[in-house]
Amino acid sequence: MEEQKILEKTIQNLMEDPDIKIFLSRDLLETTKNKLSELLKNLPDFNNYLIEKKLTDFGSYIFETGVPVKIFSKITNILENILPFSQNMTKNYMSRGYLIQMIRIHKEAIFPVYLQMENMKEIKMLEHFRRHLLYLLQVITAIEEEMYYQFEPFDEKKCPLHNWLTSDEATKIFDKEIKRIKNIHNSIHRLSTLLLERMKNFQYYSAVKIYDEIFKNSLHLLFYSRSYTENLLTEKKEKLQKIVRKLRSLSEQDTVTRIHNDIRLFKVLKIHMRSKKEFYIAIFDIDDFRYINQVYGFKIGNILLKEVAKTLESFKSKYKILNFKTGSNSFVSIIFEKNVENIIKDIKKSTENIELDVKIDTHSVKFYPKLTAAYLKVDNFFSSPDEVLEILDIVLYRGKRENKGSIVSYDKKKDSKIEVAKCLDKQIFLGYAIKENKIKPFFQPIFNIKTGEILGFEALFRIERDGEIYPAGDFINIAYKTGLIAEVDKLITKYILSNMDILNRYTIFLNISPQTLKEKWFVESARYLDNCVFEITEQMAFENINKLKMLNIETSNSMALDDFGSGYSSIKTVVELASHNVISFLKIDGAIIRDIDKNRESFFIVESIVKIAKTLSLKTVAEFIENKRILEIIRNLQIDYAQGFYLGKPSPITEINNFKILKTKE
């Protein structure tokens, strides 16, 4: 009966305090009542040790309700005046339970966040803060494990952070705030010593208040460190984003004609297809363009491309039309007019009236380009930009085969047969090549530009057919569409594993498809591919970022972001992958490198990529090094590694030891 009266009086007094009432909701009040009832039950049968334990447990419970130190003090004062225990026992042992629980939560949930210091490798200052925090962690661990008798605290002057805070560097960073930061740091060390003394003397009530002050001061100290680093990183990210915005803008522009390219075409097509409004798309292909380049030279070929682009753009004032440069000798126009065939005839006629004067030796030759044009209506029949462009390509293929120089429109019956026949032929042959082991791995050397030494090789594949070797480009699209790319990847991976005695002295760059990433065999095999760098595309990285992080943890392989600068360029994804050490290399898109000696925009793109890479501590690899001039340019841009036909062609494994060290000075 006496227990019930004590319980009711305790609850009544707690609820009369407006501050306590805010924190003890109806549900918590009921639980608190039950906990108090448990505490008071069979009280006469307990010795002091058991009472201390019960009070300690009740103090732990109060912390778990989310009650702050100030309110906890009020609760202990009320309970001390009502509960029938000896003087200070209630307040002291409830405080012990509250303190231990508070320390455990901070140790498990809060300290690790600060101890990780993700950007420590970039900002050395954080290491000083981290070492100070480790000392504080040792203090609270000593309290949690009741080892405070053995633990010897040290004053602030022996802490590595103190030495750094007195440096010119710290004063420069924190300016007027440095004095306050020093005082906070000194206070933490002095309070830590005081805390340990209170624990040794069983003064738990005052220990709670001291620890609360230590923790608040520590958060202030860490706020200064992290706010500085976050500002620094925000600046860095803004700088990177500015570069990438420029990079993206340039990557959507054709480097020769300066009109939009196929990357921009895909995006624009996607937007207009979503509107569900019908429009037309046409492709203009310059006939015999390869012959023009061979006979008259690439310079004349580029002049022709510029003139065709200029002519196409001139029609924008006359018709609702958008123009794009695609492929090596093709232009695509999106037309928002009904009289599409007349518009195409008009464009074709004007383009074929372009007159070029070409000097060959002492003679001057005039020639006029010829075009084959194909078009189709884009309506709800098509499900994606990929499908539209693929069908448009098939219509053009039929036009060039049947009557080069003509204008052809989409014929569902004819073009479907061609599409099926082309795809089926490639699919059947690719399946046969996989089954009959006709997939042949080739290896292209990657050189360290500074030292001239071979870093390693990129593993590529070729297909053997009737004694001929065919490049992967002829089959890669169908391999992805049919899912056979995973089988190709598997064969190449097996080949590398079975020839590790030859390859283990090199770094092997291995292309990985999204399909392969999902395969169980790949994760298992990756553990034995210590010398491999997995090449992934930007889009694959964006869509599989968590899987890539997990793969990195499981295998510890480095990864390279392939074709960087080709238009996707999600800086957020790149920064995230780099900060988690998932990627170590940026492989610069070969299409940009190939044009770097002729085009200022290409040069700027590559220069920007190098800046991004250096900011993120990533190594750069330039592909498509096709001549001495390109090699000199990328060397001056301080790109780390290079590969391309000028340096070494893809070769079978039997020839990889024949490559010589690259000359560091040409």
UniProtKB/TrEMBL annotation:
One of its GO terms (molecular function) is cyclic-guanylate-specific phosphodiesterase activity. It holds the Pfam family EAL. Residues 423-664 form the EAL domain. It comes from the Bacteria. InterPro entries: Cyclic-di-GMP_PDE-like, EAL_dom, EAL_sf, GGDEF_dom, Nucleotide_cyclase, Rev_trsase/Diguanyl_cyclase. Residues 277-412 form the GGDEF domain. SUPFAM superfamilies: EAL domain-like, Nucleotide cyclase. This is Diguanylate cyclase (GGDEF) domain-containing protein. The lineage of its organism: Bacteria, Pseudomonadati, Aquificota, Aquificia, Aquificales.
